[in-house]
Amino acid sequence: MTRTRFIGKTVLITGAGTGMGRAAALRLVAEGAELVLVGRRPEPINRLLGEIDASGGAAIALAGDIADNEAVAAIVEKTIARFGRLDAVFANAGVLGEFKPLAVTDGDDFDALIDTNLKGTFFTIKHCLPFLEGGSILINASWTAAGVMPGAGAYASTKGALLAMMRTLAAEQGPRNVRINAINPGIILTPMADDVIDPAFAARLAAHTPLRRNGTSEDIAGTVAWLLSHDAAFVTGQEITVDGGYTLGGLRP
């Protein structure tokens, strides 16, 4: 059955060129969305734009760093100039940083993560909010915000802060009928994850997961589409964990 939940809707996706952003873009455009593809590097978003154009979909690609407040403002301005509206945002862009124990993490490590993961997400939301009456925002957080992966403490700290931001925004924006939610992806084998997860480690993680596999970006895309759509019209202020059961407590069979 062809889904048409996003016909006439414009969705902005940060970090759209690869991984979960790319998979979400392909899912949303298949459901009729007009897309704004945002990424720091022009090449990946332009490749994706070419695929969408070839499929008959509507999209624009806008290169920019979400850590740059003025660049984000310009991206949103161009979005409204092109489509005249904005209905949903997938605030997906983020960086992993260097894996190291917190005891040897320094201020520069935190600065880079805070600039993109926390401030960059905030800039994205802040500039989009005026155009989102009745719209929806989804923040890409992480299972590590409530779980523990040694070496990812600085990264997890920024993701935990995003969940606090999400809940506050949901309360503040609810009277405008703007919904704000977050997803906590589990072990998802994206290009960013591949930088720190070698095949042996990936096999150990999969063995700990009840579904006995690690996730793919496509495993996330359906949840993104649901939370941004009218099907989730009464869902706000929530974090949805999509991890194949990885974070379940207790013994494994």
Automatic annotation (TrEMBL):
Pfam families: adh_short_C2. GO terms for molecular function: oxidoreductase activity. Residues 9-186 form the Ketoreductase domain. Belongs to the short-chain dehydrogenases/reductases (SDR) family. The lineage of its organism: Bacteria, Pseudomonadati, Pseudomonadota, Alphaproteobacteria, Hyphomicrobiales. Keywords: NAD, Oxidoreductase. It comes from Rhizobium redzepovicii. This is SDR family NAD(P)-dependent oxidoreductase. SMART domains: PKS_KR. It comes from the Bacteria. The keyword Transmembrane does not apply. PANTHER family: DEHYDROGENASES, SHORT CHAIN, ESTRADIOL 17-BETA-DEHYDROGENASE 8-RELATED.
